[in-house]
Amino acid sequence: MGCANRPFFHIVVAEQRTDQHMPVIEQVGSYDPLPNERNQKLVAFNFERIQHWLARGVNLTDPVAELLGLSGYLPIHPRTYMTAWRNRIKANEESKVKN
């Protein structure tokens, strides 16, 4: 969703074997990755419905698992640690260049 240079994502339950443009079963959240005026990235979840679908055995995609881990609903995803590690290395390299 969203438009050019302004992404916006719906977190949905969908059949794994269908096309991405097919109708979804249910929308269980949304994610706005661009920071707002307070430098916050907004995420909204319907945890009751997520719990319902997890109990039915759905598979989570990695980005959704990362968001649920950061929200504290699931354990933190390993890719989150790798992203933080890469960001620290990049920040250290940038600080060395400035000095």
Structure description:
There is one protein chain. This protein is of the alpha+beta class. The protein folds into two domains: 1-59, Ribosomal protein S16 (S16 Ribosomal Protein, Chain: A); 61-99, no CATH class. Helix content is 40%, strand content 20%. The protein contains three helices and five strands; from the N terminus they run E-E-E-E-E-H-H-H. The chain has helices at 47-55, 62-71, 78-98, and strands spanning 2-3, 6-7, 9-13, 26-32, 42-45. The strands form two sheets. The protein has a three-stranded antiparallel beta sheet. A hairpin with a 2-residue loop joins strand 1 (2-3) and strand 2 (6-7). It is globular, with a radius of gyration of 17 Å. The termini are far apart.
Features:
99 residues; alpha+beta; S16 Ribosomal Protein, Chain: A; 3-stranded antiparallel beta sheet; two-stranded antiparallel sheet; 3 helices; globular; ribosomal protein; Ribosomal_bS16
